[in-house]
Amino acid sequence: TQNILLQREAIELAYALIARAAEQTGIRVLAIKGLVASAHELRPDRTPADIDILVDPQGFAAFTALLDTYGWRPRLGEYSDFPVPHHSVTYVHGKWPCDIDVHHRFPGFLAPPQQTFDALWQRRASISIAGRILPMADWTASVAIMALHSVRSRPDNPRHAGELRTLLELAHTWTD
Fold it and tell me: Under a CB-based contact definition with an 8 Å cutoff, are residues 136 and 126 in contact?
């Protein structure tokens, strides 16, 4: 099936879809990484391959069930947590050229997932994408998420090493 959406359009509309789904369910959702990191000027603006969201762990099952009704399916089907539990489930759609990574926790934060989410939610910011307002991780949380994401991959991964290097180069400009 040929995609009718360009990648950037799909990314922005996927964020709008997530904002609508969060409104419909009343489940708290934070946009993380990707365009959020670009909005905070923590990385150059580029079109990501997917969107990443962090969902209130208490609402994760209900939120992902709604994505199913929209035609999105877990990439690994019923084995999305096999052989070991993951921190997210990647959703795909046959007519969209992007994925949606739905996180129920973010590896590296030391507090329990619900406590971490509540703390990130309390300090959230907002971003406007495709005519929708979506809660997002604030600047400080985005720095932590980018650093944790970068250091959990292999040291020879050039993209993640570059992201970590960018954070380190920016650090001298940050205030207390």
Answer: yes
Interhelix angle 60-69/7-25, rounded to 10 degrees, is 120
Q: Find tokens 């096999």 and name the residue.
A: 82
pLDDT digits (tens, 9 = 90+) for 83-112: 445 789 999 999 999 999 999 999 899 999
Mean pLDDT for the chain? 88
| Whole-prediction pTM | 0.89
Phi, psi of 53 (to 5 degrees): -135, 150
Q: What is the pLDDT of residues 48-65, one digit of tens each?
A: 999 999 999 999 999 999
